[in-house]
Amino acid sequence: MAALDTYRYLRGGMAVMIVLLGAAVVAERVGADCWQTTISDYYYTSAHAVFIASVCAVGAMLIVYKGSSATEDVLLNFAGTLAFVVAMVPTTRPDLLCGPTPLIAGGDAAVRNVWAVVVALVVSRVASWWMYRRTGTTRERPPLATAATWMQRVVLGVGVVTLVAAPEWFRANAHGVAAVAMFAAIIATVLITAFLTGNQDQAKCPQRRRYQAAYRAIAAAMALALGTAVVLHLVLDGFNHAIIVIEAALILLFGAYWLVQTVELWGTTTRAQLMPDVVARRSRILRSL
After folding, report:
1. CA distance 191 to 187
2. Range of the domain at 79
3. C-alpha–C-alpha distance, residues 189 and 184, integer Å
4. What are the tens digits of pLDDT across the range 41-87?
5. Sign of the C-alpha dihedral computed for residues 248, 8, 117 and 144 taken in this order
6. Which of 49, 118, 190, 289 fits as disulfide partner to 69, beta carbons 3.0 to 4.6 Å?
């Protein structure tokens, strides 16, 4: 029962962190009597602490949460790691910030904070490797999970090399690159969830088709919102609120995904418990996940 409650808190906690961030943005809006152009710009406002805390909390929960498949687990860990980069390295300071005197933050401190994240990741990875090796509990990963693992290693490795070789470029661009990669990984996990949901035991999950349709819709909407946000960032200059609207939609969809999962999986820990054994054994795609 304790494990089940933990999973409930993790799933629900994702949505609660979105509420926390949204409340901080709205509170800042009330005090400033205007909106910033992006969610990331709130790093430089009175919402600074909540922005960092909520994104880091989501990152920690994504890492702790055990995915329903090995591939999903790797992607969640990847997204969670990138969330810390999004939180620690601010977006480039905008020329126009509305409202009261903005917070002076970022700069060299952001790079030092990322180094703290790198150290924590290295220590945790070495400790994890040692414990699995010492206890003989290393698990063999299926093909897609192995590919996702190497993709994660390459991306994070390139990030560390860039941090060492080009810290100024890293400071200026890491936030945006990490945010896009983080949401791309999350969209991939939503697609995996949709696929797994459609293969669940009908007796254990009689509403599986409805949930599958919901996950597919969320994944499609998130992909559209992410693509639109990237394009708007590239083509729009100056003070334009189209970006914050799209970003808000993307974040709300993320919260909606975890809210739907909280409802669907309220009585179980992981989705693997809802899969019929015969399907899991015979499906090549399921085995590869």
Report:
1. 6
2. 2-288
3. 9
4. 888 888 889 999 999 999 999 999 998 889 999 999 999 999 999 99
5. negative
6. 289
